[in-house]
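INFO  loader      accepted 1 record
INFO  loader      residues=332
INFO  predictor   begin
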Amino acid sequence: MNYIIVDLEWNQGNPSHEPENATVPFEIVEIGAVKCNESRKMIDQFSALVKPQIYHELHHITRKLIHLQMKELEAGEPFPDVCNKFLNWCGPEDYIFCTWGPLDLTELQRNMEYYDMQPLTAGPMKFLDVQKLFSLAFDDKKSRKNLEYAVDFLKLEKDIPFHRAFSDAYYTAKVLEKINDPKVLEKVSFDTYVKPATKADEVHIVFDDYAKYISRTFFTKQEALEDKEVSSCRCYLCHKNIKRKIKWFSPNGKHYYAVSYCDRHGFMKGKIRLRKTREDLIYVVKTEKFITPPEAEAIKASQASIKEQKRKKAAERRKSAFSKLPGSKPEA
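INFO  predictor   done
INFO  writer      dumping tokens
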């Protein structure tokens, strides 16, 4: 299997001159990529400019970052031609896309849809987020540092300028080559521009230290939360339904947490993220991982604090409503 490390540069509207196109807020103006073999050694490269069709003035941020002029872009080819050349260059062999961060594949597919091109996949697309993998392999596993930081950290030679599509793909490939932990390289991400169409298409994947589930779409938040697969608490190691110790609760109406207990593997935290599609439908990304007893107690304390905050707010609303009733007297 090959690795296709891709980077995109894009332009956006200038509010005072060119209003944002809601369908394509970011128009791709350059595609750069590096192809690596199974050993993650570079074997080929791709670079092409895209002739703008949506925004005809470079946003000042874009101009500052990528050091390109509009006249240079005008010499490029239309997006469908460049994209088809890129996809053909990726080759008939099996490959996985790799990017620095989670945004490029979403914007690639958004631009493809604008030009009525066939989607890349029929559902969520598996890829390697090298920015995340760098953090897992060399940093604190949570922060997301910029590409130049990673290059400096690994003491890689900086032999071409940053902030062009090919150069950033090139440096991303060099960082990927330095990640040798097999468990880290197994930590694939999923681009969800295309959602699972049916229950059979939903994503279930287990890593060495957590499990992930990506649902099909639902019409409402309530329908999503009532779905058995979404709300279930099942040990992802022994595949048994386990007893819920802390019921699902939410601090903000978007994220929900629960804690269950497996007799064999201990406390398991569940986290539900509710996300909206472009059509205002709802889908769910649920992660589950085993935690320590102190971590379970901390979640229980968080749930109790949220309940107390809601109780106080409800009491304040009742007090406010009562004070507005005819003949009511303010409390002493």
